[in-house]
Amino acid sequence: MVMRKLKEFVVEKLILICGLASIFFVVLIFLFLTKEGLAVFKSVRPADFMFGRSWYPISEPAQLGILPLIFGSLIVTLGAAIISIPIGVGCAVYIAEIAPLKIKEVLKAGIELLAAIPSVVLGFIGMVTLVPWVKSTFNLPTGLTALSGSIILAFMAMPTIVSVAEDALYSVPKSYKEGAFALGATHWQTIHRVLLPAASSGIVAAVMLGIGRVIGETMAVMMITGNAAVIPQSILVPVRTLTATIAAEMGEAVVGSEHYFALFAIGIVLFTMSFIINVTADLFLHNKRR
Amino acid sequence: MRKLASVFIFSAILSCVSSLSYAADKSIQIKGSDTMVNLGQAWAEKYMEKNAGDFVAVTGGGSGTGLSSLISGTCDIAMSSRNIKEKEIALAKQKGVNPYEIKVALDGLAVVVHPANPISKLTLDQLSDIFTGKISNWKEVGGVDQKIVVLSREVNSGTHVYFKEHVLRKGDASGKEEFSPGALLLSSSQAIADEVAGNSSAIGYYGMGYISKKQKHIDVAKDEKSAYINPTIENVISGKYPISRPLFLYTNGQPEGLIKKFVDYALSKEGQEIVVVTDFVPVVK
Q1: Cα(B162)–Cα(A205) distance, integer angstroms
Q2: Residue B226 and residue B188 share a domain
Q3: In this complex, which of A135, A228, A253 lies closest to B184 when CB atoms are compared?
Q4: To pair with A17 at 20 to 30 A between CA atoms, which of A216, B120, B184, B219?
């Protein structure tokens, strides 16, 4: 009897430690990021850092303005959202409501497979197929543009959007649908007047999680967006994203230099952005449960 | 970039290990130019394969860092992609160090465009204006009416820095010229080669080793009056090609013992073959 209680106690505590470990690591990462990143503000004013328009980190004196990088990240993300949301939600509706069982299975497997493709592979495929296509289709000087990045990232956001949105559609009570049919609504009327509004908070959460994935993506965007640090005037020009900047420059930044701290400060900006997106998604998910 | 990073990590490990075995007096510390880190590392690896028991540690940090380490006695050989300055020699003499210069390789940078581009020669001034964005259309230098797509290496590249200092700023150390903000920064020389091969309005630069038939190199002249020079190994060796520089090793006095053995290896036929493999131009044929 005592043994059983002891065993119970030990297991419970072990699980507790596992649960706390993840929070502990997040806090550690956040503290490290803050410590290293805030150091840059000893030499650059926060406003100059956030709203400066030139990024020349290795010049003397260095110019560390990340506004073009923020815009770069935003325009690529926005483009990816515009492409992936209609397709993703449409796909979720089809899988959850319309598709016959066999097609449903094939589609779900296909989407899971899409999620399993490593981003460097997508980037490579984009570089040799999509980039020349974008260049010739839009008659541009170069195909390494924000649009190319958006299209590839849309593929990466789609699996998340489809699976979470599909779950949300499934969790709509069956009686809603039956009621709509009983009132004489067609299938499409039922879907867009009853099911979609009922599942809306879950769908918004799906979209947010998809966008969260896009904004943090690095390898593919670094390969196909051209990495030019200018504030983009359209989606058909090269951009440099926050993530690509960190990845491209961290290897050679002298530890403890202004440049090194600036890259960590970019990390804080990214962390804040994805934190806001995740919290928004969370709020919507909670909203659904109520 | 990953390769560079791994060289960094590798050399960091090496320097740890070697500082442990420093007392054994069988080790050489080499420090300096980031451009030459890969070359130095390649020499060190092959040298250690042939001479088991000897230890060579290579670290980067920049030419200036290497030379100041040599002066303060914390390294045996400094790698430098520029000549030592008068000031540095004076400082060295004060500390009783006598810098000895050995030219070990040359570095030539080719400027390349798409083969269909009618432009085949440019002056340094025109190159500077193109890469800073002052000239943004090919017709301004006599080409077709097409926007110029400027390609550059990422800022972590020594080539990026060299090109900025010697082409954009034309060697003027106090120059303020920067790459055009619209320049595409690509992560490798190969990426630049690929983009130039597929883009008729692109212009880029990289070490001469990357020239192939898919790109056309530009003949470069110092100014309008000078002759336009082909980026060939011969023209780099003779010093006619304007975008090239010698790469040096500096030692304290004439090299002796283990240091001499390493320097001799670098200048040997095998050592100079490594120079070619790492995309530089050999000094000894």
Answers
A1: 49
A2: yes
A3: A228
A4: A216
CATH, domain range A51-289 = 1.10.3720.10
Q: Is B12 on the interface with A (CB under 8 A)?
A: no
Domains of chain A: which residue ranges?
Answer: 2-42, 51-289
Structure token digits, residue B275: 């120079």
* Alpha-helix residue ranges (DSSP H) falling in chain A: 2-38, 46-51, 67-93, 101-116, 119-125, 131-137, 146-170, 174-182, 187-189, 196-198, 200-216, 219-224, 242-250, 258-289
Contact A226 B147 (CB under 8 A): no
CATH number for B202: 3.40.190.10
Q: Tell me whether the omega of the peptide bond preceding residue A46 falls within 30 degrees of 0, making it cis.
A: no
B76: which 2 tokens?
């045996």
Q: Give which of B169, B174, B185 to mutate to test A binding, by max A Cβ within 10 Å.
A: B185
Using alpha carbons, select from B247, B242, B85, B81 the residue that is nearest to residue B170: B242
Structure-token pair, residue A215: 């904004």
In tens digits, what is the pLDDT along chain A, a chain of 290 residues? 788 889 999 999 999 999 999 999 989 999 999 999 999 998 889 999 999 999 988 777 888 999 999 999 999 999 999 999 999 999 999 999 899 999 999 999 999 999 899 988 999 899 889 999 999 999 888 889 999 999 999 999 999 999 999 999 999 999 999 999 999 999 999 998 999 999 988 999 999 999 988 998 998 998 899 899 989 999 999 999 999 999 888 765 666 778 889 999 999 999 999 899 889 888 887 775 55
Identity at B102, one-letter amino acid code:
I
Residue B32 φ/ψ region, left for φ over 0, alpha for ψ in the -120 to 50 degree band, beta for the rest: left
- Residue B102 forms part of a structural domain: yes
What is the DSSP code (8-state) at residue A218? Answer: -
Instruction: Write down the H helix ranges in B54-179.
Output: 63-72, 86-94, 124-132, 158-163
Give the whole-angstrom CA distance, residue A43 versus residue A62. Answer: 10
Dihedral sign of CA atoms A56, A59, A63, A64 in order? positive
Nearest in space to B83 (alpha carbons), one of B98, B60, B99, B61: B99
Long-range contacts of B92-97 (CB under 8 A, 24+ apart): B95/B71, B97/B70, B97/B71, B97/B73, B97/B252
Assess if residue B176 is contained within a domain.
yes
The DSSP string of A93-125 is HIIIIIS-HHHHHHHHHHHHHHHHS-HHHHHHH
Is residue B40 situated within a structural domain? Answer: yes
B64 and B112: one domain? no
Contacts of A68 in chain B (CB under 8 A): 181
